[in-house]
């Protein structure tokens, strides 16, 4: 691998309105000596990069594609990037027309629909749990092919939203009803609204893999360990720490399995984020996405590679990645979970949490008056705690100690009913 340097040409960034990553990618392109052109569906955006860019209707892909290709005619486009999953299909078609490396639309679909991903793994002979797809309106626990304990998953929601473990028929029926309500609330329709993925529960420690595919070859960025057991009934992610406490043979087995699964999905070029469990029979893929790690957790990749995540992505799409750096230290993040539902009144203990040794930062992403929804209905975190220490255990302890200092004071939510006259 070579260190990235300034490259000629434009970064074509496709971003829906409201994407929080436009500014970060703009700064990254500038630092690499590149120009950036933003394609968005926001006609009257106040964000300068979007306002100066190309505006299209993402719902009309054919017309959007024609308009974008006309707008970039004559420009030297070095790479095409999507900030969000909703833009991946359009990016794939753009790259294809421009002759640039990119994942195919079929491969992207495999990462966006859990059932399609599992089928791809089965066809390729990769390890996978027993699974089946059921119709929500025809639930019969006595006719399931998958044995208990099992996990019920929506086909398209992210961040463990709506994912529930069931150990018996009663829990299964209750979970399906609960997930159906979540899908209605999320505005899901079509096949993903009417069907669910059922798969056998996978036991074992879980890891998060960050890598990059360059023309079919997988490169490792970092491996996160999740030290807290994820056994259900819900699967909220909390602690991520790197480097993971695994020896070289285990590391190789995890990387090799991710590479096999990525090939099975048809992924060939771009970032890879994978969730994988280490079972008695070997690594088993839980999830695979054609994107980087979400939210603020990308700061841990920057810790490992000493370069901003967005710079790494742009460089990788252009065929270059930085060399992995051996820091000799550990870094970690706690995605602060929402313990109970309610309306946030205030946050206490923030100063005390910041004073914990080895804690680098505490970010609270909710304000008083915000409605808190824990998993499986919720889709967000209270914030993030970052720590950096001399070793894994010290860093992990700092995150836990800082979390114990925080107190989120809530009040009940009152739903007012209309007065009948």
Outline the biggest β-sheet. Answer: 4 strands, parallel
End-to-end C-alpha gap: 73 Å
What is the strand tally? Answer: 19
| Lateral arrangement of strands in the main beta sheet | 3-2-1-4
Instruction: Assign a percent range to the helix content.
Output: 25-40%
Q: Low-confidence runs (pLDDT<50, min 5 residues)?
A: 1-6
What is the arithmetic mean of pLDDT? 90
Strand content: 25-35%
Number of helices: 13
CATH architecture of the domain at 328-421: 2-Layer Sandwich
- Classified in CATH, the superfamily of the domain at 328-421 is ATP-grasp fold, B domain
What's the CATH first level of the domain at 328-421? Answer: Alpha Beta
Content-based structural category: alpha+beta
In short:
It contains 13 helices and 19 strands.
Question: Would you mind describing this structure in some detail?
Answer:
Among the domains are: 93 residues, Rossmann fold; 71 residues, Dna Ligase, domain 1 (2-Layer Sandwich); 94 residues, ATP-grasp fold, B domain (D-amino Acid Aminotransferase, Chain A, domain 1, 2-Layer Sandwich), CATH 3.30.470. Strands 3-2-1-4 form a four-stranded parallel beta sheet. Strands 5-8-6-7 form a four-stranded antiparallel beta sheet, with helices on both faces. The protein is of the alpha+beta class and 421 residues long. The protein has 13 helices and 19 strands. The N terminus is likely disordered. The relative contact order is 0.12.
């Amino acid at each position: 691998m070579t260190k990235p340097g300034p490259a000629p040409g434009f970064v074509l960034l496709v971003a829906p309105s409201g994407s929080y990553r436009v500014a970060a990618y703009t700064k990254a392109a500038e630092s690499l000596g590149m120009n950036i052109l933003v394609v968005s569906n926001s006609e009257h955006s106040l964000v300068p990069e979007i306002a100066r860019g190309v505006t299209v209707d993402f719902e009309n892909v054919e017309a959007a594609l024609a308009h974008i290709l006309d707008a970039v005619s004559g420009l030297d486009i070095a790479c095409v990037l999507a900030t969000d999953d909703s833009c991946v299909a359009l990016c794939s078609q753009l790259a294809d027309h421009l002759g640039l490396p990119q994942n195919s639309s079929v491969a992207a679909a495999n990462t966006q629909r859990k059932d399609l991903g599992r089928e791809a793994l089965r066809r390729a002979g990769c390890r996978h749990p027993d699974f089946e797809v059921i119709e929500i309106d025809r639930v019969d626990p006595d006719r399931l092919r998958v044995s208990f304990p099992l996990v019920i998953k929506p086909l398209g929601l992210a961040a463990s939203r709506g994912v529930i473990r069931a150990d018996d028929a009663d829990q299964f029926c209750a979970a399906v009803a609960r997930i159906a309500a979540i899908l209605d609330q999320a505005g899901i329709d079509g096949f993903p609204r009417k069907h669910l993925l059922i798969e056998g529960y996978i036991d074992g420690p879980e890891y998060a893999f960050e890598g990059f595919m360059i023309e079919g070859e997988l490169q490792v960025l970092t491996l996160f360990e999740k030290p807290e057991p994820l056994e259900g009934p819900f699967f909220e992610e909390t602690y991520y720490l790197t480097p993971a406490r695994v020896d070289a043979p285990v590391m190789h087995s995890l990387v090799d399995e991710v590479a096999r699964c990525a090939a099975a999905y048809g992924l060939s070029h771009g970032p890879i984020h994978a969730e994988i469990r280490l079972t008695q029979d070997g690594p088993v893929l839980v999830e695979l996405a054609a994107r980087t790690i979400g939210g603020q957790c990308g700061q841990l990749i920057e810790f490992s590679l000493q370069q901003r995540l967005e710079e790494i992505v742009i460089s990788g799409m252009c065929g270059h990645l930085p060399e992995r750096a051996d820091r000799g230290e550990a870094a970690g993040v706690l995605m602060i979970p929402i313990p109970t539902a309610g309306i946030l009144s205030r946050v206490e203990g923030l100063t005390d949490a910041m004073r914990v040794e080895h804690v680098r930062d505490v970010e609270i992403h909710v304000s008083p008056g915000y409605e808190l929804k824990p998993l499986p209905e919720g889709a967000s975190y209270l914030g993030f705690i970052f720590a950096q220490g001399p070793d894994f255990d010290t860093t992990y302890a700092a995150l836990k100690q800082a979390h114990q200092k925080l107190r989120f004071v809530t009040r009940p939510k009152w739903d007012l009913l209309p007065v009948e006259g």
